[in-house]
Write a structure and sequence with these properties.
Layout lengths: L1 H18 L1 H37 L2 E6 L5 H12 L4 E7 L1 H11 L4 H9 L8 E6 L5 H10 L1 H4 L2 E7 L2 H43 L1 H9 L4 H42 L6 H7 L1 H27 L3
Antiparallel strand pairs: 1-3, 1-4, 2-3
Helix pairs in contact: 1-10, 2-8, 2-10, 8-12, 10-12
């Protein structure tokens, strides 16, 4: 009996859907626009998060030691910095490695290369490259280096590659884009409510004679309302499926451009979607289903008198 009722519900829901096919197409289009605006926010959040993480990974402090400082003294400073709980990594770069890096950096400048060849000894000192766990901790490291006398006398110079300004700008831009995205999503959501309610109202009007006959033969209110709720669920399911297909299409087309924007090919929107498939599209499907059913319930309570 339950299976029979369910099959009838699905049958009548499909009849409602195809009887007003163009109105159904318009409704699904609005659903797709609403869901894809949410998916776009997910894309933006992922790209901005990767960009901010990339900039943060390039923040470090290079500590240049005087050429006369011994390796033992440098390793003592390295051990002291590694003991700080806000230091992530301290990398030692020898003076030979530093000189080779300098030669590679100025490979297109013969004048500098010739000057280096003329030198009898390596003018560079050893270096420690310090990476903090958080960007806010770099100032603490600088304070330690400046405020510890046994460190300060060994250090020739320090360079703090501070990208906090860029990070703050990216975070601000990300917030502004998200705000604009949510405004667009809310706009489409309001339109979706109005379109779904109007679609169900027209469906009720189209089936008014059938509804009257159902009531005459003793059909329950649930049986009468069921096909309209089924139609609403159908809008959500089809809309979510089309949004998923569109999202993967956009992700695959955008991946080369995103890789170029970020400066590396390790990040992929398509891979991100694969790793968060149910979290993204499952949530969208559940949310839109509840949204459609709620809108339909409002329409039924207002226009269906049974």
């Amino acid at each position: 009996m339950l299976l029979l009722s369910l099959s009838r519900l699905i049958k009548f829901s499909l009849q409602n859907f195809f009887r007003n096919i163009w109105l159904s197409v318009v409704t699904i289009t609005i659903v797709v626009l609403t869901l894809f605006s949410v998916t776009s926010l997910v894309f933006i959040n992922a790209i901005m998060g990767e960009a901010i993480a990339l900039v943060k990974s390039k923040v470090d402090i290079s500590v240049y030691f005087k050429p006369t400082v011994s390796q033992e003294q440098i390793f003592a400073v390295q051990n002291g910095l590694e003991d700080l709980n806000y230091v992530k990594e301290v990398k030692y770069v020898s003076k030979a490695e530093a000189l080779e890096k300098m030669r590679q950096q100025y490979n297109d400048s013969p004048l500098i290369l010739d000057a280096l060849k003329e030198l009898q000894e390596n003018p560079l000192g050893d270096t420690l490259v310090v990476t903090a766990k958080k960007t806010a901790d770099y100032q603490k490291i600088v304070d330690v280096l400046n405020g510890t006398p046994q460190y300060a006398v060994l250090i020739d110079n320090k360079s703090f590659d501070d990208n906090r300004y860029i990070i703050e700008k990216l975070e601000t831009l990300s917030g502004q884009i998200k705000s604009g995205g949510w405004a667009v999503t809310i706009f489409f959501a309001i339109i979706a409510v109005l379109v779904i309610i109007n679609t169900i109202r027209i469906a009720i009007y189209t089936h008014r004679d059938e509804i009257a006959i159902m009531k005459l033969v003793g059909a329950s209110n649930t049986f009468v309302r069921g096909p309209f709720l089924g139609e609403a669920i159908l809008y959500a399911v089809i809309g979510a499926a089309l949004t998923t297909a569109l999202a993967y299409l956009v992700a695959n087309v955008s991946d080369p451009y995103v890789a170029g924007l970020l400066g590396h090919a390790n990040f992929s929107l398509a891979s991100y979607l694969n790793g968060n498939f149910w979290k993204i599209f499952g949530t969208e499907l559940a949310g839109m289903t509840a949204f459609s059913v709620l809108s339909t319930s409002v329409a039924l309570s207002r226009y269906l008198k049974v």
